[in-house]
Write a structure and sequence with these properties.
It is a single chain. The protein is α+β, with helices and mostly antiparallel strands and 417 residues long. 40% of the residues lie in helices and 14% in strands. The protein has a six-stranded antiparallel beta barrel. A three-stranded antiparallel sheet has the order 7-9-10. It has a two-stranded antiparallel sheet with strand order 8-11. Helix 9 runs antiparallel to helix 11.
Length: 417
Amino acid sequence: MSEPSTVTPRLAERFRLLDVAGSGGSAEVWRAVDQERGGMVALKIERRDRGASGEERAAALRALAREALHAALALSPRLPELVDVGWLSARAGVARVEGAPGEERRAFVAMRWIEGRAVAEAVRELPPGERAALALAVARDAGEALGDLHGIGLAHGDLKPENLILTPEGRLGVIDLGLACSIHETAVEGATLRYLARRDAELGDARARDLLALGTLLAEIALPGVGAADDPIGAARAAVAAESAAGPTLDAICRALLSPCPTARPSSAWVTESARAALAGARPARDPLAGRSARRAGDDPGAPGAERDRQDRDARRVRAAYLRLRRHELETAPGVRDDVASWLADAFAVVQRARALSSAEPGAGDGTARAGSPQGEAAWLGRLGPDRVARWLTALVGTSAAAWPMKAVASAPERTI
């Protein structure tokens, strides 16, 4: 599991730029080598168009800062891992990390590069009879990514084939958190229209829109007629209502995700577990994601790695519930006290660097607050009170936590809890 960490650049020439991997309205994405940590990164660098107003540049910086912030909090093996964020100057194929903004310096966000190919490419290469297995594998992994995001109160906001990458190891990564937002957000900003139910009476909140997009993607993968339709949502609903040839489990998953009632759509955790059970129960066959057996340690409940996978998922649930409770504080607090969860100070340091981008003022990158600093005492991140510990544990185990001796539990050190 990826964990947030404080990054202090030591190499003057941090990134070696290889080639442009993509481009958007506010930034250009490079495939680059991280010469300090090793490995490949997706380096998103602020784009400065001639004639752009100060407000337009400020909006672009806020967008990069928001994406870095969300990546710092979204601890998931299926989502982009934040490597670094800050300011850089690039020349002759090499990017030098700088301590503060300046005339020749641009904001950047570096994510761990996810090697692989897009889902759409894999679908084109598969015979129709193998597409349902691919859809189940996508349901398992994309559902896990959404579950990790939704657990901290965030929605992806732009789930589409281009943002689903199949890795050589046979798993799926969900990329691009540029449009991530609160799960309760009802306004739509920049989403792909193909995956919005614009004919429905209600679009629902961002969480519900994520789930609908996932259901549509699964139907597009498994059912060729849906992928070719101008209205894929309508075509997918008609197909699963008629009990398509995708199989009972996939039909049930798609039918639930495609519900016209946003609040009736299931949790992403249910999607993941349903798909995982179906893949584990199937006879071993060629895995459309990796060309290996479809039954891997993470899918087979009896396999040696299954218990480790469950423990990892449980650990992420604990942190996600905690971060969801404290996300607003992380985004606004000036510092962290010593008596909080042990990893919170590291997460806070990365969040601070992401916040510095949106200010775009000289010296903004140098003011990271640390535990023990004398500023802003009242607003600091300290330990949770009994009522908030109760909210945290209730989010994890349900209403049965209300019967626990919460005062005694809350009196324990937060690291112990």
